[in-house]
Design brief:
442 residues, alpha/beta, Rossmann fold, six-stranded parallel β-sheet, three-stranded antiparallel β-sheet, 16 helices, globular, binds nicotinamide-adenine-dinucleotide, binds the ligand O=P(O)(O)OC[C@H]1O[C@H](O[C@H]2[C@H](O)[C@@H](O)[C@@H](O)O[C@@H]2CO)[C@H](O)[C@@H](O)[C@@H]1O, binds manganese (II) ion, hydrolase, manganese, iron, NAD(P)-bd_dom_sf, nickel
């Protein structure tokens, strides 16, 4: 097996340490030669880097070189794989994305509704810029993107790099849900062959089989309706907000038992309930700042201080392992099946071709190959079409600097709908994001 050179872009992320620990778990599947960290925030990255260096010395001495840098040339010129996970504007801007819609009694969320629109508008420019520069050094490297909102980022990257099938947008949510299904059945997520369709954070599992071909769907539904379902992956197991989200998955299934829903549908199906449980002064961003972000960087500091990971609860996680397994299937032409986000091009036959859809794909060194899904039912088709209209209008608006298209986008979005609300929210979001979006202020 040829050993891989990997670059992590946005290496100051709260997820970096978990991904690095997951690389240890997956070292047989995805053996590494060199790891490079790149971030624009040197101080933030350095904490993750110094802790990672210590962990690699203890658990992954086979890695020949580990460096961290803010220099793009050093970071980009020699890698086979790029894991992208930036957050333009940071968690501080995430908080504003959540607060602005909430102040108008609309869902305030990182990737859904008006908050997702604001975050999408900020992410597009940085992501296009980064991918363009990576491509100037490495034409054939695999670029695996986690940067959110993945639906909007995927659409923009597909417009900008239409013939580049080595850019894959990925979400860990379906995998995290499957980890919980696996727990219910007493098996492993890697035993599952999922059938799923939708847009990112907006989809449904239609079937879950095991690798022996046994259909497990009804058993999973029955257990959820009888016993409930819990978040069990290491990052989210002890998080009350994620447990509440998994509880809502049960409600969604009870209200419509046709398919197994993605957790994120809660924001579109129960927007009033989601708004009513929020505290505008303690939205999810604030919880992450006081929770995951604090814990991760405190752990880094302890590891650096002790010069060892001994005694630390440093776990692998599905977020890391999913990305790494996707990468391994591409690198080694394994033909494994994972859910990724790809141009529709007839996969869902009654949805437009240029939709970026999240579907099962076989992953080989030729890139992702999706399986035909055919026609989807009227309810899901209509849900997808309005959301797709919203996503397309947001990306159009970014290119054109069109405020009207943003208002139209939010008018379509199930979390806003009313034109007067759409207008005032767009106005406030643009004002808050002036520095990131000069095209709207010409
Ligand atoms: N697709 C998924 O399912 C999934 C799952 C989890 C997280 N995410 C996404 O991963 C990203 C990281 O999340 P987080 O909560 O750890 O955020 P974070 O703010 O902790 O980390 C993001 C890092 O990106 C850096 N950054 C910002 N702009 C950059 C640029 N232009 N170039 C290089 N680095 C840059 C920041 O300095 C920061 O260190 C977010 O986009 C988040 O939404 C996606
Ligand atoms: O509110 P946050 O920052 O805790 O989470 C936002 C992200 O949520 C999903 O990712 C989960 C993932 O599903 C789970 O496996 C584990 O890794 O935790 C992640 C978040 O904590 C979602 O898929 C992402 O797109 C969101 O950014
Ligand atoms: Mn996601």
């Amino acid at each position: 097996m040829k050993k891989i050179n990997l670059t992590v872009v946005g290496a100051g992320s709260t997820y970096t340490l978990g991904i690095m620990r997951s690389l240890v778990t997956e070292k047989q599947n995805f053996p590494l030669k060199r790891v490079v960290f790149y971030d624009i925030d040197a101080a933030r990255q350095e904490l993750n880097a110094k802790a990672t260096e210590i962990m690699f010395k203890e658990l992954y001495p086979e890695i020949e070189e580990f460096i961290y840098t803010t220099d793009r040339k050093i970071a980009f010129e020699n890698s086979d794989f790029f894991f992208m996970q930036i957050r333009t504007g940071g968690l501080k801007m995430r908080e504003r994305d959540e607060q602005i819609p909430l102040s108008h009694q609309c869902v305030g969320q990182e990737t859904c509704g008006a908050g997702g629109m604001a975050y999408g508008l900020r992410s597009i420019g940085d992501m296009i810029d980064l991918v363009r520069e990576i491509r100037s050094y490495k034409k054939d490297a695999w670029i695996l993107n986690y940067t959110n909102p993945a639906a909007i980022v995927a659409d923009a990257l597909n417009r900008e790099f239409p013939n580049d099938n080595r850019i894959l947008n990925i979400c860990d949510m379906p995998a995290a849900i499957m980890v919980s299904y696996a727990k219910l059945l007493g098996c492993e997520i890697w035993d599952f062959v999922p059938e799923y369709f939708g847009l990112n954070h907006y989809g449904w599992f239609t079937k879950i089989k095991n690798k022996q071909g046994e259909d497990l769907t009804q058993r999973i539904k029955d257990i959820i309706l009888k016993e409930g379902i819990k978040a069990v992956d290491s990052i989210i197991a002890n998080d009350p907000s994620w447990q509440a989200t998994f509880k809502n998955m049960e409600t969604m299934l009870r209200d419509n038992p046709e398919f197994l829903p993605n957790t994120y549908l809660q924001y579109y199906l129960y927007p009033e309930k989601m708004v009513s449980k929020e505290d505008i002064n303690n939205t999810r961003a604030r919880q992450v700042i006081n929770g995951r972000e604090k814990q991760v960087f405190e752990m880094c500091k302890r590891i650096i201080e002790k010069n060892s990971i001994a005694g630390e609860q440093l776990h692998d996680d599905i977020h890391g392992r999913y990305m790494i397994r996707v990468a391994a299937s591409l690198a080694y032409n394994k033909g494994d099946i994972y859910l990724v986000i790809v141009p529709n091009k007839g996969i869902i036959s009654n949805i437009q071709d240029d939709a970026m859809v999240e579907v099962p794909c076989m992953l080989t060194s030729d890139g992702p190959k999706a399986f035909a899904i055919g026609k989807i039912p009227t309810f899901q088709k209509a849900m997808i079409e309005i959301q797709l209209g919203y996503e397309k209008l947001v990306v159009d608006a970014w290119y054109e600097g069109s405020k009207q298209k943003l208002i139209n986008a939010l008018t379509l979005n199930r979390t806003v709908v009313n034109v007067p609300k759409a207008k005032v929210i767009v106005e406030e979001i643009l004002n808050e994001n002036k520095d990131y979006l000069p095209q709207f202020f010409k």
